[in-house]
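Thread title: Can someone regenerate the structure for this chain?

I was given the following input by a collaborator and told the matching C-alpha cells would be attached. They weren't. Posting the sequence so someone can regenerate them.
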Amino acid sequence: MRSLPFTFAARYLVSKKSTNAINVITLISMLGMAVISMAMVLVLSVFNGFEGLTISLYNSFNPDIRLVPIEGKVFAITDEQETALLDLPGIAMVSRVLEEKAALKYDKYEFIGTVKGVDDLYGKVTGIDSAMVRGAFVLRQGGQNYCVAGAGVEAKLGININDQLRDISVLVPNRSGRTGGLIPSQAFNRGRVLPSGTFSIQAEFDNKYLFVPLSFMQELLQYDQEISALEIKIDPDKTTVDKAKRDLEAILGKGFVMKDRYEQNEFLYKIMRTEKWITYAILSLILGIAAFNIIGSLSMLVLEKKHDIAVLKALGADSGTIRRIFLTEGLLSSLLASAVGIAMAVIICLLQINFELIPMPGSGTFVVSAMPVKLKLADFALVAITVVAISLIASWVPAYRAAGMGNLVKEE
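Best answer:
Regenerated them for you:
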C-alpha cells in the first residue's frame, strides 16, 4: 500500500493522456523547470568561479594572519618575542612590515601612494611572487635598494623597469618637525630606489602600493626597530587560525588586532555572498512562477482521472492516499525535469572549464582569459531542495482537490 502513490504517479507521468492539451502543458512545465534549474546551477557556478578567483588574487597579497596595534601606528617587537612566536606550533613564518603614505616622483610624474617596507620573508609569507607580471620581486641586491610597484602605480608614474638610470624618489614628512626655514623640501625625508618589477593583483592594490626594503623604510621614517604590522603564515596541518590567534595573544598581549584572511577583506566577501544569494532568490522566484504550469497540468490530470479516483476510493483508498498520488506526480515530473537541467548545466560547465567556450570581455587585460566556473555539490543539493519545495507547494492545490472527489464509481 505504501508504494501505491508512487506506482500510480509514475504510470500517470509516462502514459499518454486522452486530452492533448494536458501533454502540452505538462511538457511546457517540465521544460521550464529544466531550463531554470540549469540556469540556477550555471549562475551559482559562475559566482563560485569568481569568488574563488577573487580569493586567490587577494591571498597573493594578504597573509594568513595580520597583526596591528590597537593604539598608535607602530610598535616594536623584541627578538625574544619573535623567537617565541616562531616556536609556536603551526607558526611557519613571521614577516615584519612598515607602511606609510608617501609622495612618489619618477621623471616628471608624481603620485601619492602607500609605500610598504617588508623584510626578506614577505614573499614567502604571502604569494606576491605569483602576482609578478614584469621583472622579479627583488628589493635589495648588491647594496642597492629596489622597489616593486603595482601595475596602476607603474602606469601613473610611467615607470620603465628596464631603465636602471632613473630611480623613484620617495618623500615622507620629517618626523622631527623641523621644516628647514625657507626651504620647504627640508620638511621631507627623501629616499631613492630603483624599479625591479611590477605586480598585478587587483585594482585596490595595483593602484596603491609600492614595495621597498624594510630597512630603507625604517631609515626614511626615522625608526629604529618599529614596525606597523606583523604578517604571519601558519601551517594548517599543525594549527588553526583561531588557535594561532590565541597563542599569539598569549605572547604579545591584548594590545593588538589580529585579522585572518576573511576579516582582512570582510566587506568584499559579504558583498560577493550577498550578490550570490540575491541572484539565487530571483531565480527561485522565476522557478516559482514556472511552477504555475504544474498547477495547470495537474488540475487537468485530476479531471481526466476522476473515474480512477472514484474506483480507488471504492477499493478502500483514503483521501490521504489520493492526495499523495498527485503530490508524487508533480514531484516526479519536476525532479525529472530538474535532473535533466542540472545534467545540462554540468556538461556546459565542464566544457567551459576544459575548452574555455565563453571568453572574458577584455581578456587581454584580465587575469583570466575565460569566464571562471566552479562546480559545488552544495549547489546541486540547494537547487534540488528548492525544486522539491516549490513542486510540493504547487502540487498541493490539485492534489487536495483530487482527494475530495466522490467516493462512488460513476458509470459513464
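The CA atoms of residues 64 and 233 lie 5 Å apart.
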